[in-house]
Specification:
Elements lengths: L6 H13 L2 H8 L3 H15 L4 E3 L4 E3 L1 H25 L5 E8 L7 H11 L3 E8 L1 H9 L5 E5 L8 E12 L11 E5 L5 H13 L3 E6 L3 H9 L5 E4 L8 E2 L11 E7 L8 H15 L12
Helix pairs in contact: 1-2, 1-3, 1-4, 2-3
């Protein structure tokens, strides 16, 4: 028996997997929550396997759901390429994309490489920077699409992935409770930096800066050397570093959303069409954004 997977159901599945919320998935897709549930149920019927475990408080991928992530992204990408080929639409022009430092060590390059292969007439100009810097450049009209952390209290942007922030450091690092917390930080206006300092100030925990670098690689090197702790996305902990033990008594850092942002007043243009296409590719391959890149 040949099973044909419905692209609409696959797209819904990916959105639920990225947001871990049927409510947020419905909001992003512009569907009713009952329709989202129906799409997932029908996809589970087609596979003959449960793809999510869910209760009133949480949604989690099953082992089969994790496997479906890769298949769904591949199927949807092929579907998009076929549609573009047979409709004769070809994207062209310059596309200025900003990506936060958080994704340096993920498989995002695979998504960008596939986009370049499918759209050879688009000149992709990539900027890797702090999320705060990217927000500022987008506001000044210097970027067409941004993939970055969402600022606290903001709600705009297409949600790609929700996670939590945690304190990480070298495996053998031990914090002296009688001394200030040694911090490894991005410079201002880093969103993670601000969150870390605010959390420590609220907890009344003294701190001192042990290292500042605008490069994620620089921060990782300092952390591996045991210079201090850094606040980082829990799902993107670099090799050689581990979450700091709860016994250290560091305050909770809360959640973090990664979103796709476009200029608020973007008018129809070649750049906007290209940005929309790349945004779709990133959303379809969102699972790759919280997976470490394989060895080169």
């Amino acid at each position: 028996m040949v099973v044909v997977y419905d692209p609409a159901q696959l797209r819904t599945f990916l959105t639920v997997a990225q947001t871990l919320s049927f409510t947020q998935a419905a909001r992003r897709l512009g569907l009713r929550q009952s329709t989202v549930s129906q799409h997932v149920r029908r996809l589970e019927e087609a596979t003959g396997r449960p793809l999510f475990t869910r209760d009133t408080h949480s949604v989690e991928l099953t082992e089969d759901g994790e496997a479906m992530l890769g298949f769904a992204g591949t199927i949807l990408a092929a579907h998009e390429r076929a549609a573009a080929f047979f409709t004769g639409t070809r994207l062209r022009g310059r596309l200025r994309v900003g990506v936060s430092e958080d994704f340096v060590l993920t498989r995002l390059p695979e998504v960008l490489q596939a986009f370049r292969a499918d759209n050879p007439e688009v000149d992709l100009e990539l900027t890797v920077e702090l999320s705060g810097v990217l927000h500022e450049r987008l506001a000044r009209g210097r970027l067409d699409l941004v993939l970055a952390k969402r600022r606290g209290g903001e709600t705009h942007g297409d949600l790609v992935w929700s996670s939590t922030l945690s304190w990480i450091g070298a495996p053998r690092l031990r914090l002296d409770p009688d001394r200030p917390v040694p911090l490894i930080l991005f410079p201002p206006p880093g969103i993670t930096r601000a969150r870390a300092l605010e959390a420590l100030e609220r907890a009344g925990r003294p701190w001192q800066v042990a290292c500042t670098s605008s490069s994620l690689s620089g921060l990782i090197a300092a952390a591996r050397a045991g210079l201090g702790v850094m606040a980082h996305t829990r799902g993107l902990v670099p090799p050689g570093l581990v979450p700091v033990s709860a016994r250290a008594g560091l305050p909770e850092l809360g959640g973090v959303d990664f979103v796709l942002l476009r200029p608020r007043d973007a008018r129809p243009s070649a750049a906007r069409d290209a940005a929309d296409a790349l945004a779709k590719a990133i959303l379809a391959g969102g699972d790759r954004l919280h997976r470490a890149a394989g060895p080169s």
